[in-house]
């Protein structure tokens, strides 16, 4: 785009001061309209020589202490000597850059001498072909050596800026292919210098202009940054038109992203539409949104906002957007002690485990019934004196008498009268068990006296009665007496009262067959 020729220190200082005071009185913009962008490296073109360096701290003061991180200037393009860096002001910019590692030095470098002399297209085509053939490589090599010697080997080189327009002799329209070859030769010549760390910025003008700028792109291997110069002018009536137009702001962002490059805005500002705060506000928001590597506003009339007093509204927007927010007085937040509410300690109820006593079941002492063993006295049977001849003693079989049940309770034994047996007297044993017959002692030969009737045996009490009551003696029927000298011997049996009632009175009779040859009957 057309640019007025740079003026040196002859610029009226009073005009600059007046503009500074006028714009400094602007009020702050509302917070909701304030575009942000203070964390992106920014600067301004203030002048190409030492005045430009001197104005940087003044601009910073006007912006409320905003750090100006980018210093931007141009090499003169009237002669090759200026393009080679043989100018005194480069030392001032190099000193400013070296003072802080966080600073950035941006240098616009023309690609042709007589760069602003309106050289016709056919001559431009001839100059492009000469550059593509390497005729100007030495000039770019000398510039690189100069910058490395000044201690600024990392300078951002904006080489052949706005090449898609019609203003400069280094434009690419007359021969795009030859121009791209020429760009590559210039970059390779500067990179051949030892110690260099340059970054090359390809920066067309926004819009189509004389040629679509993508046709001039020399390639990713010789481009580090894709920039764009964008002023408030046609094409595009509004800022939205500037975004969406062919080769506009949006296409610039998309193209750089597709090639993996950072973007920049080396030149931007007001131009054809005068004081336009809306443009300034929208441009700053766009910059904040897309985060370029850097941006610099062209700050002189008619483009600027600080040194140009004819744009006060735009100056206000610019200043409000970039002035750092000053922290207000630190009001200590009152520390409201949180009441410590003691957590009630709810004791856990101790539920005693019930001790169930094991019941002590006493082992019943079952008394062992003491069954008295009846003491049966052995009868002392006197041996009778038997006269000679001695007769053999007859074998008297003992009758089998069943043993009655012995009851568990102790039953008093009734007194049983002992029958009076004549000679000899044999005592009858007292026993609850079977009733034994009294032994019969042999008598001398003679008539046997009558045997007295046996005494009735008392009935034994029933075992079912717990407490035996001695029964009253019942009269026993008299058994018939055996005839004298009978060979049958009967003994009554006593089974007890209960059993005797069932079976009746029983007796056991034994027939003793004595032979007549004995000549006597013992009873």
Structure description:
By secondary structure, this protein is an alpha/beta fold. Helix content is 24%, strand content 10%. The chain contains 12 helices and 11 strands. The protein has helices at 13-24, 50-62, 80-83, 89-98, 121-132, 137-149, 176-191, 239-244, 249-258, 277-290, 312-322, 497-503; strands at 42-45, 70-74, 104-109, 156-159, 199-202, 225-227, 230-231, 262-269, 295-298, 488-493, 506-511. An 8-stranded parallel barrel has the order 1-2-3-4-5-6-8-9, surrounded by 4 helices. Strands 10-11 form a two-stranded antiparallel ribbon. Helix 5 crosses helix 7 (176-191), helix 6 (137-149) packs parallel to helix 7 (176-191) and helix 10 (277-290) runs parallel beside helix 11. The radius of gyration is 76 Å and the shape is rod-shaped. The model is unreliable at 4-35, 387-409, 411-466 and 517-523 (pLDDT under 50).
Brief digest:
Helix content is 24%, strand content 10%. It contains 12 helices and 11 strands.
SSE layout and pairings?
Layout: H1 13-24, E1 42-45, H2 50-62, E2 70-74, H3 80-83, H4 89-98, E3 104-109, H5 121-132, H6 137-149, E4 156-159, H7 176-191, E5 199-202, E6 225-227, E7 230-231, H8 239-244, H9 249-258, E8 262-269, H10 277-290, E9 295-298, H11 312-322, E10 488-493, H12 497-503, E11 506-511
Helix pairs in contact: 5-7, 6-7, 10-11
């Amino acid at each position: 785009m057309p640019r007025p020729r740079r003026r040196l220190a002859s610029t009226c200082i009073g005009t600059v001061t007046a503009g500074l005071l006028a714009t400094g009185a602007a009020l702050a913009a509302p917070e909701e309209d304030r575009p942000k962008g203070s964390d992106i490296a920014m600067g301004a073109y203030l002048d190409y020589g030492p005045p430009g360096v001197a104005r940087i701290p003044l601009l910073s003061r006007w912006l409320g202490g905003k750090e100006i991180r980018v210093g931007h200037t141009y090499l003169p393009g009237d002669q090759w000597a200026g393009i080679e860096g043989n100018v005194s002001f480069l030392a001032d910019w190099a000193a400013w850059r070296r003072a802080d590692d966080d600073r950035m030095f941006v240098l616009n470098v023309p690609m042709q001498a007589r760069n602003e002399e309106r050289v016709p297209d056919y001559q431009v085509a001839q100059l492009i072909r000469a550059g593509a053939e390497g005729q100007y490589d030495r000039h770019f090599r000398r510039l690189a050596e100069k910058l490395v010697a000044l201690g600024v080997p990392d300078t951002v080189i904006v080489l052949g800026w706005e090449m898609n327009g019609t203003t400069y002799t280094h434009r690419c329209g007359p021969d795009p292919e030859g121009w791209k070859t020429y760009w590559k030769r210039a970059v390779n010549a500067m990179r051949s210098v030892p110690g260099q760390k340059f970054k090359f910025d390809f920066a067309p003008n926004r819009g189509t202009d004389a040629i679509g700028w993508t046709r001039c792109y020399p390639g990713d291997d010789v481009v580090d940054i894709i920039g764009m110069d964008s002023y408030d002018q046609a094409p595009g009536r509004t800022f939205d038109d500037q975004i969406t137009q062919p080769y506009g702001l949006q296409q610039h962002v998309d193209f750089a992203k597709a090639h993996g490059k950072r973007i920049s805005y080396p030149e931007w500002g007001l131009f054809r539409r005068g004081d336009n705060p809306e443009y300034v506000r929208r441009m700053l928001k766009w910059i904040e949104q897309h985060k370029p590597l850097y941006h610099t506003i062209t700050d002189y009339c008619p483009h600027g906002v600080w040194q140009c007093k004819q744009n006060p509204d735009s100056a206000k927007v610019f200043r409000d957007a970039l002035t750092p927010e000053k922290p207000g007085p630190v009001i200590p937040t009152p520390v409201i002690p949180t009441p410590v509410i003691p957590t009630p300690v709810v004791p856990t109820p101790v539920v005693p485990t019930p001790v169930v006593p094991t019941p002590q079941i006493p082992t019943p002492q079952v008394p062992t019934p003491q069954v008295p063993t009846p003491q049966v006295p052995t009868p002392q049977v006197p041996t009778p004196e038997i006269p000679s001849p001695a007769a053999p003693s007859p074998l008297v079989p003992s009758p089998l008498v069943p043993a009655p049940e012995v009851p568990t309770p102790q039953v008093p034994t009734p007194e049983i009268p002992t029958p009076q047996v004549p000679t000899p007297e044999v005592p009858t044993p007292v026993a609850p068990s079977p009733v034994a017959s009294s032994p019969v002692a042999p008598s001398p030969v003679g008539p046997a006296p009558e045997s007295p009737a046996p005494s009735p045996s008392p009935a034994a009490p029933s075992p079912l009665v717990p407490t035996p009551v001695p029964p009253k003696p019942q009269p026993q029927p008299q058994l018939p007496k055996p005839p004298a000298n009978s060979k049958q011997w009967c003994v009554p049996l006593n089974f007890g009262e209960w059993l005797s009632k069932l079976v009746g009175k029983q007796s056991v009779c034994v027939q003793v067959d004595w032979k007549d040859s004995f000549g006597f009957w013992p009873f």
